[in-house]
Amino acid sequence: MKLLTPLFPTLILGAALLSGCSDTLSEIQPKTSSQQADSKTKPSAIGAVLIDLEQAEGQFSQGNKVVLPGVSARSYDLLSATNGRISLTPAFSGTLQSIRLVLGTGSQIQLANGTLLALDTPSGTTSGLKIQLDDTPLEAGTTYLLTIDFSVERDIVSRGNGTYGLKPVLRGTVIPASIIINVPPTLPTPPS
Question: Could you tell me which residue ranges the DUF4382 domain spans (predicted)?
């Protein structure tokens, strides 16, 4: 019996290590067909990505976090060049670092065949969809356009169960909204 006494702690340690290995091995085994993984979404599969925007909040470098006036609460299509731009007018000057888009529960994704499905936006209805910006100086009372850098393949996750999710952080740019007049390089000659 004295021979087993010194070996007993070693046997307990070995059993604990082996039981830990079985858990680790089960984690690295291939997933079965019932455990379908998330995958990248093909751009051709999506017709529109509609976010249900309720309000926009700006985070300024001075520590101010304010609701940005002049933002229309409505549905915006992140794929559309015109509807994907959001107009905003700050009430004071400062350096804007990021914008949080607080979303309602009506965000949807439209498949290429026209089918509308709910779009899962993690924290979209609580802390908002974050739009990361380069530090951008804003002037009070000037209207700006927020353009969101959006890619279906990068920013939409297609889940194995047929649902879609929007990643919680996107990139964007803010530029002054101005009227652009294109002047041709040479003016036509007036008729004589």
Answer: 47-168
- pLDDT value, residue 109: 93
* C-alpha–C-alpha distance, residues 158 and 153, integer Å: 9
> Rounded to the nearest 5°, which phi and psi values hold at 151?
-135, 125
- The pTM assigned to this predicted structure is 0.66
Give the residues of the chain that fall short of pLDDT 50.
1-38, 180-188
Neighbours of 171 (CB within 10 A): 16
Unique residue bearing structure tokens 């001075």: 62
162: left (phi over 0), alpha (psi -120 to 50) or beta: left
Q: What is the predicted pLDDT for the residue at 43?
A: 63
Cα-flanking dihedrals φ and ψ of residue 10, to 5°? -65, -40
